[in-house]
Design a protein that fits this description.
It is built from 20 helices and 15 strands. It is an alpha/beta fold. A hairpin with a 2-residue loop joins strand 8 and strand 9. The structure holds one RNA strand.
Length: 594
RNA sequence: GCGCCCGUAGCUCAGUGGAUUAGAGCAUUGGUCUUCGAAACCAAGGGUCGCAGGUUCGAAUCCUGCCGGGCGCACCA
């Protein structure tokens, strides 16, 4: 990194490290924006951390004393960008930086362009991130849809900090659930002349919900003759196991058809959410390729299994991850469980050489996490490579009534319904506004009736306003015959209003925010960040009504150019943050009549 | 019963890398459009950070125990 590109915070850090070099070993310390401007612009807890570290013996050192010592050493360095240093509170060192230094650093935003916010933290290491992976036995509902924007935004964040990211969807297209889906469709085929039928019995294994009825209609349309042929072959008690007097082969056909159709719908829903995957892995292929079988064999050889009541169990008392929670790998009928396939699937990912494996799962899968880790550990893979982001399901309300979601119960809200109602941008932003582990309330009435209040509009409005100013500026310059070059960097010394300097500080924090959000796997930090930027700008903008110094397009030509440059920097940062979250940054917004 | 997550303003939630005076949006109340977009701005009220202990100079943040809510604990996936 060239010296020129070192940020003010980095310069301050270096200066502090030099000033505190007598206190070894130097602990890690933080430099952040002071919460209250009156204290200063930047602050560090260095003195307080040192005081604690130095107090191990009898000589208790006062943070204030250490702070004073550091100040005098900093003063010896004659830092030309430092305005003033003070001590406050329990020993905080507060700094005020010269405006010229901030103005200079502002230039890094537009000079970096598309690279602003990027870093090489990831060093090109590879990450596989698996998300959505909704079972193709039903459409994506608002509950598991949360994993979509979450995984997608995480992938973008990790790319931004220099990882090579593969986005993957694992399709659970194996198992008894497919027959159940087939049976469920069959019910509605049998009742095709009776649309008011009550639906399959609640205590049956059938999937509830309107979508099954729709599937039956599609099936009748697309493979009508085939079905009627098969139905005509039915004999009353041909297959007692299904309890419906229908041949197992018809159920299989319908189940397969249902999975195929639903998977297509899921892909469409992902498109609507603005999500694309680099890789689709089918459980069926894992199973069919013999990989599961090989895994089971390997586990048996490792002596971490046992036979019990005809089934094969993973049982490794020495493995703390498993925590004595034994689980079935192969059922007594000889078929592997999804767990066995899942182990094979994860082993495949290890074999592909990924450096990190991230699973974005609904919180109901939390019990599954240690078991998969235990199994791969038994097979000699590093379980630490697997990281799991567990998100709480979205709680859907209709007014005051909570709606319990269940793919089987049928009483759920489709992701598509919400998407159609509020649009992709609001949909994504809303789901990305909360920490993954936080419960998220989605009141449909509220979302539908008051979607205008969604914060996403606030951010987009700020962005559109900035674009509008720039458009107007271009027009104004043209009329005045002034040429405005794209890459011209104006003199920024007129940018010295407190709000301007404060906003420069915030804008320059963007790369750190990205780094932290990516490291902690918490995209919602970016939502809050761009909201803060938008808010600061809206406030700044509004001041122009009563104070001409805040007007962008008035004053001297140099001042106008500087303010425009400032506005472009804000617009650039907002657009970048929105793009990271997969949300559009419109250049203009249109009023909807209410 | 065991495990994971959550409990912060009336509501929905940030903050949980200990640290300067605990924040935001919505809602409520009161102001602000002849001027770069009022989908906006400004101001006010509103909090024993679930409870109780502990560690610390300092705890919403760390530890322990309880209480309340959600979710798991299948030869389903």
């Amino acid at each position: 990194m060239s010296l020129k590109n070192i940020s003010l915070k980095q310069k301050l850090r270096q200066a502090l490290e030099k000033a505190a070099q007598d206190y070894q070993p130097l602990p890690s310390f933080e430099i952040e924006r002071a919460k209250i401007r009156a204290h200063g612009e930047l602050a560090t807890n260095l003195a307080m951390i040192l005081a604690r570290q130095q107090s191990v013996g009898e000589n208790k050192k006062n943070p204030q004393t250490i702070a004073q010592d550091i100040i005098s050493k900093l003063n010896d360095q004659n830092l030309d960008w430092m305005e003033s240093i003070s001590v406050a509170g329990g020993g905080f060192l507060n700094f005020v930086i010269k405006p010229s230094a901030w103005q200079e650093e502002l230039k890094t935003i537009l000079e970096s362009g598309e690279d602003f916010g990027k870093s090489d933290e990831g060093q090109g290491k590879s990450i596989n991130i698996e998300f959505v992976s909704a079972n193709p036995t039903g459409p994506i509902h608002i509950g598991n849809a949360r994993g979509g924007p979450l995984g997608d935004a995480l992938a973008s964040l990790l790319k931004t900090i220099g990882y090579d990211v593969t986005k993957e969807y694992y399709v659970n297209d194996v198992g008894g659930q497919i027959d159940r889906l087939g049976e469920s469709i069959l019910y509605w085929i049998d009742e095709k002349d009776n649309p008011e039928a009550p639906g399959p019995a609640k205590d049956s294994n059938c999937y509830q919900g309107e979508y099954v009825k729709e599937l039956a209609q599609i099936a009748l349309r697309e493979l009508g003759e085939k079905i009627s042929d098969m139905v005509s072959e039915v004999e009353p008690s041909s297959d007692p196991s299904t309890g419906s007097g229908c041949p197992a082969s018809l159920i299989k056909v319908l189940g397969k058809f249902g999975i195929k159709t639903l998977l297509k719908q899921i892909k469409d829903d992902c498109d609507l959410m603005g999500i694309t995957f680099d890789s689709w892995v089918n459980e069926k292929e894992i199973l069919g390729s013999g990989k599961t079988e090989a895994i089971l064999k390997a586990l048996i050889e490792k002596n971490v299994t046992k036979k019990h009541e005809g089934a094969l169990w993973l049982a490794d008392a020495s493995n703390e991850l498993l925590n004595d929670r034994e689980c079935v790998l192969e059922k007594s009928d000889g078929r592997p469980t999804y767990f066995a396939n899942d182990i094979a699937y994860h082993v495949e990912k290890y074999k592909k050489g990924y450096d990190r494996l991230i699973n974005v799962w609904g919180s109901n899968h939390h019990g599954h996490v240690p078991r998969v880790k235990a199994a791969v550990q038994s097979l000699g893979y590093d379980p630490e490579k697997i990281e799991t982001v567990l998100y709480q399901y979205v709680r859907v309300k209709r007014g005051n009534d909570a709606v319990k979601m269940s793919k089987r119960g049928g009483n759920f809200v489709l992701a598509r319904e919400v998407l159609d109602e509020v649009g992709r941008d609001a949909f994504r932003f809303f789901l990305l506004m909360r920490a993954p582990e936080s419960h998220l309330d989605f009141d449909l009435e509220l979302a539908k009736s008051q979607s205008q209040e969604n914060p996403v509009y606030y951010v987009q409005y700020a962005h559109a306003r900035l674009c509008s100013i720039m458009k107007k500026a271009a027009q104004q310059f043209k009329e005045q015959g002034i040429e405005l070059k794209d890459h011209e960097i104006p003199d920024l010394k007129s940018l010295n209003l407190p709000e301007e300097l404060e906003m420069i500080r915030v804008l320059l924090e963007y790369p750190e925010e990205i780094l932290r959000a990516a490291k902690k796997l918490e995209p919602h930090r970016i939502s809050f960040y761009i909201l803060e930027v938008a808010k600061m700008f809206q406030s700044y903008y509004s001041k122009a009504k009563t104070d001409d110094r805040y007007r962008v397009l008035s004053g001297s030509i140099d001042s106008v150019k500087a303010k425009l440059y400032f506005c472009r920097s804000i617009q650039h940062t907002l657009a970048s943050g929105l793009k990271l979250l997969g949300i559009t940054a419109p250049t203009e917004m249109h009023h909807e009549e209410s």
